[in-house]
Amino acid sequence: MIRKGSFAHIYQNSNSKTKEFEEFTSTLYSQTEQLCENKMQEFMIIWGDYNQSQDNQMAKMHLIQCFPFLKDRIYQFQDSQIFRFITINLSEKNILFLMSGQFAYQQYDGTSNLEWLNDKIRKQELHSKSIIIFTSLKFILQNGLSIEILQKQFKYVTQLAVQYQNLIQSFDKMIYNRIHISFVQNKNLDYFFGSQVNLVLNLFQCHNSLQIPQINYENEFYKWKKICQYSKHADIQSPLSLYLNESDIKSMYKIFKSCSIKNQQECSYQEKVQNILNLYTKESVLYKFINLSMNTMNFKIYKYLNTVYQLFSRSLYEYQDGQKITKVVLYRGCAIQKYQYDKLYEEYLYNQNNGTTTFICFPQFLSTSLLKEKAQQIMSLKIDQIKQQQINRSKITQVKSNENEKLLKSIGFDDQYKLLIKIDAKFDDKNKFKPKYISKLSSFQDEHEFLFQPFQSFRIDYMQKANAVNGSNMQMTLFYVC
Prior knowledge:
Blueprint: H1 9-12, H2 19-30, E1 44-48, H3 54-66, E2 74-77, H4 80-89, E3 95-99, H5 101-105, E4 107-108, E5 111-112, H6 113-122, E6 131-134, H7 137-142, H8 147-153, E7 157-161, H9 164-175, E8 183-185, H10 197-202, H11 217-233, H12 240-243, H13 246-264, H14 269-281, H15 285-295, H16 299-318, E9 327-337, H17 338-353, E10 359-362, E11 366-369, H18 372-397, H19 403-408, E12 416-426, E13 436-437, E14 449-452, E15 456-463, E16 473-481
Parallel strand pairs: 1-2, 1-3, 3-6, 6-7, 12-16
Antiparallel strand pairs: 4-5, 8-10, 9-12, 10-15, 11-14, 13-14, 15-16
Helix pairs in contact: 3-9, 11-13, 11-16, 13-14, 14-16
């Protein structure tokens, strides 16, 4: 029995049972069974700081002012032994770690606190993915540190901050504005949504009793404007701030309104479904908006867009693609940030060495192709697109770098791999939850596209070893069954 609330549960409601499917889901469940609903909660902070000073108390106050839910959820420790003891005892909780520079390098039992914590996260013994170093510029300069140097040795150091403003921005990115093309699915899976994981999954629990939702377009228009304002004012890593503006919102509103008028006319149910999917499959601002918003893994944005997500998920579920196949090999070409691939590879390698299967989950509607050559072509284009996005984002945010800020900004976050993903997929041809062949709906029919529902789980069967060369070609093989 797959526990309700796990990402594995999304399969159980919708899929036929085969031996291979049962083996897949039982293994997937074994990776998530340690989660207990009564232990789920929103973020808490464990803060190690050698000195309890007015500065870090002020920083704590600023954090609570910006993120009120952190009140009574910030725990500060000066002693390494107590810090580690409490960390282990709260290992099931959803933790962000914050350390001063001195505390991070303080030795206890033969290892520094930073080395100990990074190793515990790598081994998936803690419910966390992030370490933030909040320290003085003097300490950084004296010890020759930079975020680049830290991340080469400690993969889970995500930010290096020296001022309150830097710290607030770091937490904003960690809490509200993650970009994750994909994430490892293991006992840490609810790290992204905390106790809200059930609400997110329910958006994509597609079965026959669920109907395509009705949309109040004026209300959605208001929500999109709110998201636009939010993404412009927050220090957000998401490309939403590039692709979402007032004219885009008006364009999306017109597209939706036109579809609504068309579906009110006399047409079959399948024609209505195709009219809705056409809004997504035609390369438009709406297509970018939906997937980019999903990739933020931002529950605030998910709440705004839940009706829109449901509209497309239900429509894809109902779409009849006419395919009777039960086995297919699919390809996806993309670009992935080096630091992200490196962390994923490290977890995959650790699991492999310990006889554990690694699952990966994609939060967006996942587009794949029957043609390896087409996927490779897309893969090559993505690097240039991302570089241009980074240039545009720098112009929008008007970032003015000085020598000190260069220590805090990781060049590695701009480094990319080209990644070719091969997917061995097996499914029941009658199963509505299977990936759908949408070529005749697509603007790019030569891609021969199969589209997956969001939050589908894949077993990682192979990952190419990461290397240090920016722009390298990487390969990954996944297995999918439903």
